[in-house]
Design goal:
The protein is of the alpha/beta class. The chain has helices spanning about 5-10, 20-25, 65-80, 100, 105-120, 135-140, 160-170, 175-180, 190-195, 205-215, 225-230, 235-245; strands spanning about 30-35, 40-45, 50-55, 60, 85-95, 125-135, 150, 155-160, 200. Strand 2 and strand 3 (about 50-55) form a beta hairpin.
Length: about 250
Amino acid sequence: MTQAATSAAQAAPGQVDWRALAQTLFPQGQQISEKDNFLSGTAQVDGATVTVVGTTGHTPIGIEIALAQATAILDTVREHPGRAIVILVDTQGQRLRHRDEMLGINSYMAHLGKCVELARRQGHRVVGLVYDQALSGGFITSGLIADACYALPEATIRVMGLPAMARITKVPEERLTELARSNPVFAPGPENYLRMGGVAEIWHGDLAQALRQALAVDRSADTRAAVGQQRGGRQWAQRVIEAVANDAPLN
């Protein structure tokens, strides 16, 4: 058994082992560590060093991880100008605890978003990869906030489960299930997020080469709404953007 396969075998049932993924993504070497499901470190891509941050173990994004990711990004901006940043995503979403809400988790997440935007404005490429699970607020503050987000074919991506959506919206679950068959907004999976433009590409085959190509593309301009319209997943977002920008009626 290879070292990568051994690492994968050590992962908990239903989870992708980040160590095996790191070996595949960064064959030139990596120095990534894990503490309390928070990933941080560096790796080598095409002879250059990149910063790596992320999560594992389907962990929820609470104030500690949001602040840790923000700190790692700010350290990169301060100490390594122009260095690319790779965000590895595996989260069950925002941590739903009274403590986090009382401490203002929304502000922590907003701070993380501002740090990513600062890095982007300072010339850092920021790439997100959903390698296992990505749900709701935890996904927004990690993969979706990057210049571009990518996913593995087996990844699980959704805003929320249809049973929970039914409870909140008061729309019967049967109706939501029916809508999910034709509308990617309601349906989980990387293919549906690809149609909506939230995921730029689904990576197959050589992941290291896919990452090299992703880091070589300038995606600093946000074209996700336009891409979603082209792919047939979001019919109105780009139209609304254009109408607002041009102070014109919505057609």
